[in-house]
Write a structure and sequence with these properties.
By secondary structure, the chain is an alpha+beta fold. It has helices at about 1-25, 35-40, 105-120, 140-150, 165, 195-205, and strands spanning about 30, 50, 75-80, 85, 95-100, 130-135, 155-160, 175-180, 185-190. The protein is built from six helices and nine strands; from the N terminus they run H-E-H-E-E-E-E-H-E-H-E-H-E-E-H. Keywords: Redox-active center, Signal.
């Protein structure tokens, strides 16, 4: 009887946690499922991810992050949405915020909605570059999303995850703050208003 009560209690707690996550649909992280990785699909539907809330994202294995604070930023060149290219080495001397995201990721979308006011406008005219990179999606998917959200800021494209794989093996959104000397100042996984505030503070300190 005690075992049955414990099982029922555990199931009820799990359902409550799922309901809270579904209701918010905003903060947390999205972790790739093994089936998605095996299929090679670009992850455009709900079957492509599992949800991790801010309360559980601390349990995301560190092995999924391939770089750490103090490391030099991996060398890469990214093709931008407008057809231009950005070489990360060319941004040395500026503070850079690299953001990996995807159109199907609710926390990513919630984070991007804050970018114009909280990041781009705040640091306009300073030695700062915001470099969002769409992970695992086609230009067409990003274009449709940009038009729907009316975004005009630059976006990088990483349809084959070649750039992302230099930084991590799974989980978005991911943010990396790069110092003016090209070293990594911060590695953040997931999105919440509190995390965004911390990122802003780190960028401010790096610009001093």
């Amino acid at each position: 009887m005690k075992l049955s009560v414990h099982i029922i209690s555990s199931l009820f707690s799990a359902l409550l946690a799922f309901a809270a996550t579904s209701a918010s649909g905003q903060t947390g992280t999205l972790t790739d499922s093994p089936a998605l990785a095996a299929s090679g699909e670009n992850g455009t539907g709900p079957q492509a991810q599992t949800v991790s809330t801010p309360q559980t994202q601390a349990a995301v294995p560190e092995s999924k992050t391939l770089v750490k604070v103090g490391d030099p930023v991996p060398d890469f060149t990214v093709k931008m949405f407008d057809g231009s290219t950005v070489d990360i080495a060319s941004l040395k001397g500026k503070v850079v915020l690299i953001n990996f995201w995807a159109t199907w990721c609710p926390p990513c979308r919630a984070e991007l909605k804050q970018v114009q006011k909280q990041i781009i406008d705040r640091f306009a005219g300073r030695d700062f570059v915001f470099l969002p990179i769409s992970r695992g999606e086609t230009r067409e998917a990003v274009e449709k999303f940009r038009e729907m959200q009316r975004y005009t800021f630059p976006m990088g494209l990483d349809p084959e995850r070649k750039i992302y794989s230099l930084f991590a093996t799974a989980t978005i959104p991911r943010n990396f703050v790069i110092a003016k000397d090209g070293t990594i100042l911060a590695c953040e996984t997931g999105y919440s208003p509190g995390q965004l505030t911390e990122l802003i503070e780190k960028i401010e300190n790096a610009l001093k």
